[in-house]
Amino acid sequence: MNGITIVIGAVCILLIAYRLYGTFMAAKVLKLDDSKPTPAHTLEDGKDYVPTNKWVTFGHHFAAIAAAGPLVGPILAAQFGYLPGLIWLLVGAVIGGAVHDIVVLFASMRQNGQSLSEIAKKELGPVAGFCTGLAMLFIITITMAGLSLVILNALSNNPWGTFSVAATIPIAMGVGLYHKKTGNLKLATTVGFLLIMAAIAIGPSIQGTALGNFLTLEPSTIALALPIYAFFAAALPVWLLLAPRDYLSTFLKLGVFLALIVGVFFVNPTVQFPAFTEFINGGGPIIAGPVWPFVSITIACGAISGFHAFIGSGTTPKMINRWSDIKGVAFGAMLVECLVAVMALIAAVSLMPGDYFAINSTPENYAKLGMQPVHLDQLSNDVGMDLEGRTGGAISLAVGMTYIFTEIPIFKHMATYFFQFVILFEAIFILTAIDSGTRVARYLIQDFVGSFIKPLKNLNSTPANIVASLLACFMWGYLLYTGDISSVWALFGVSNQLMASIGLIIGATVILKIADKRIYVLTCLIPLAYLYVSVNYAGYWMITNVYLNESSAGYNLLNGILSITMLVLGLVIIIATAVKWTKLLKYPQNVLTERASAGTL
What we know:
This protein is mainly alpha-helical. It has helices spanning about 5-30, 40, 55-65, 70-75, 80-110, 115-125, 125-155, 160-180, 185-200, 210-215, 220-235, 240-265, 290-300, 305-310, 325-350, 355-360, 365-370, 375-385, 395-405, 415-450, 460-480, 490-515, 520-545, 555-585, 590-600. The protein is globular.
């Protein structure tokens, strides 16, 4: 097996899925109608509700949903071999993730861009709405702090990376202002992209200078700077900072992975991993559990991810210009993200297994495997860093991508540059999810807490927006600064996929009401059934084998309690859903559709 075979097969499957299944979902299941105005038009306020060019919206949406998941998840799941991750990525993205993203975005726009908790309240009742809101606040807080930890490790004592990432902020604001004033997107895009490339090129030259020393920051300083940045991204009008920055970042993201695709075709790296490793039954040094359900928990973004529901019911539904744009923005962005994850998987399995496990395992665990590194010393020498025990996936992705690029003769002696560039690329990749996620957290707080403190619910109130933004940044910023998030990060995989299950529940309920044929609800029920069972089994396995197992190194009573709480919230939502569906199924389908169209159901 080689890299070209995987890339060609993946691209063909994803293109066919977009053309056929995406069109079916848009035209037949959701019946998208451009004759109706979108919430961006009916509620336009110049801040949150802004009709936006579909390519800018795609750029924002893709940049927001494609965070650490499609990069790190496939790297870690390579522990099981190349085939489990590859199958889950392609099947999960087409049948699960793309469907989840398009129905959540549609459901939110149908309710004027409201959050998933508000939609759950209207579609399933107050109990399900409360549980959904609580689960979403919990998950988004963990997500923002967890993603920020990756940025923290990538930018600490790294002036090149800090300069280049920081430069994207004023550049994006300039692009936003120019586009707002002139409407000339092409010129704004060209100048903005060239300025970002210039910032990246200048980055290495500042090291050792006064500016470089100033930007050589300790982790604690970055931990304060990130929430401050996120506050402004959440509080300022969406067109000024968040949308143009995410839009410009998308060019870098797609550019790097297009370059990686070209590199794969040029180098045609051999897949060094077997289809299945000895760890498919559990006991691996990276993921303790068996291949099922943990391949579907470890790889979220890239296949199906509940984090996407935050974006699909947060910033994006307030920006969609036409209903038909949903297909490209939601369904299309999910499939592109899947390709990103496939490329990350190729980068991982192109390494020798002994080198891969040496990087991603602690030295103590690696010693127990009985493996020997093959090229680790040479790789460490090439990139200028000791690679042993660099767990977490980010470093091995950078090493894998650097290996592929430097196999091209003209780049042979640029390993250090490429390694640092990929680390920077990962930081920018993840930071775009942090700013969008914080803005979504602001919406959630205004929806959820606003039910008890009425003035906070007013999205047009500047004080309310500032208070909610400050609260959102404080919640995850505190966890980031204190490092407490590291004790609950293992919860993210299960809670994130539980969130995806909730998104599919909402989507199935909406389809049940509006579809011409009741059988169309299977588009959501099939992935929902698989995901919900997988989530609950994974949660049960972690609780009994790790969190509440005193003999386990991961024993943690708090994690166990939080896991049980999340699973109970999911069960309550499922029960409320069953009650609601029982009532809906009493009506003939044509009556349901008529009442839904009339707004009486």
